[in-house]
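To whoever is on call:

I kicked off a structure prediction for a single chain this morning and the downstream step that reads the tokens threw a length-mismatch warning. I double-checked the sequence; it's 418 residues and nothing unusual in it as far as I can see. Pasting both halves so you can look.
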Amino acid sequence: WPKDNHRGGSETKPTNRRRGAPELVAILGDALRAYIARRNSHQTIIAGYPWFLDWGRDTLIVARGMISAGMQPEVEAILKQFALFEQQGTLPNMIRGDDAQDRDTSDAPLWFVKVCAECTLDGGHRHLLEQNIGERTLFDVVQSIMDGYRNGTANGIQVDADSGLVFSPAHFTWMDTNYPAATPRQGYPVEIQALWHAALRFMADLTDAPQWRDAASQVRQSIMELFYLERFGYFADCLHAQPGQPARQAEADDALRPNQLFLLTLDVLDDVRYASRRMLAACSELVVPGALRSLADRPVTYPVPVRLHGQSLNDPHYPYQGRYQGDEDTRRKPAYHNGTAWGWLYPSYAEAWWKTYGYPSRNTVLAYLGAVAKLLSEGCLGQLPELLDGDAPHRQRGCDAQAWSVSEAYRVLHRIQN
């Protein structure tokens, strides 16, 4: 609201001036600092306001944006805090005060490794890996996570020896609603494989040991062989399996979901242009202004049943629900990851577009990212929400201010601008 400097006028007037990328980056950078909190002598991230506390995956995803914002000391403090939480390949899913025993997550440890990679090798702070954190170094913690996944963790995460892919128990990914079990994804979720591939590449670059590079090649080959759905032009969201069942015996679903974008943004598909472009074309169906739908509005062959106390809450062959409203257990939870649009995923679509089409696509990518400007001026001013309805008019839902919505928009916009 600029001041009216004309004679006789002191009132304010609205402005229709469009925000440029540098200004948007600055606003998002200011917004990001609101989520950093102290935990004992280190730091953590409040996942969202008004009701979230600190979560494993959220904190570590947000740390990537903090690295882009030059918050290296804060990121190091976060890594040190979560290194103290690590136990035989596991990290906390949700932390309640000092209680970090909820370890139902297969992605938080892998995001930890990814942040270590971006902070040390990519960021030029390799010395951080040798710092003592308690009785171990940060490298020891990374090694413990890698060994835990390969040997099997106490909570059921396990690398399948034949394919090299990671088995994840039900509700261990970010699509983790438990009651009702709307998106269990037990088996081999696609983004877990992308994160595992990135972790293997990090270990290969760090140690120059051929075993890690060979394992990364095996994972990439298995992803292309088992996940890619040629007839649809996109990747399965999950290979559904029981514990101990090899990936080659699992059943691929045909749900069009945004998690496959991590195959592009985490460089699994860096030289597969045909598959990348077909995937992006398919995922355009998920785009709403400023967010990505968690599921496409279309029928599926592989059923996605949602039940509560034996009662069916959806059509398993048309599970899309575009409004996040109503009773929590019977309406909102079934919609949470089955059509509700998420702000934190939206920048990944722009980043995937950038990685596929390169610099000539810069204006297109900036136009996509510019959609968050409208959200910043609605709801919680200067912040981005957790959710939008998948259906028009795409009302803001969930937390009014969500850390990873802000951090991912900052990270990708900062990268493209520079």
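Update from on-call: the warning came from a stale cache, not from the record. Cleared it. Sanity check on the structure: Residues 190-207 form the longest helix (18 residues).
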